[in-house]
Sequence to fold (74 residues):
Amino acid sequence: MGRAFVQKRDPDIATAIILPRCRICNQVPAGGIRGGIKINKAFICTPCEQEITNMDARSAEYRIIIEKIKRILK
Ligand SMILES: [Zn+2]
Fold:
């Protein structure tokens, strides 16, 4: 029930099999590509994304992560 609809909504279902590795923590999220966001060709998992969002912009960890992201984006 509703299966055809799900397949129509997710034409990229085959890509979910390819497990991406987070560029921040080097972990492979359990949800695969759906467990995070893609920036350029890099991948950042949801926990890291949320951590960045909630980080103090003046903290040292934030600066380290921003440096990593800059390297991804260049
Ligand atoms: Zn991560």
Observations:
- The chain has a mean pLDDT of 80.
- The first helix runs from residue 3 to 9.
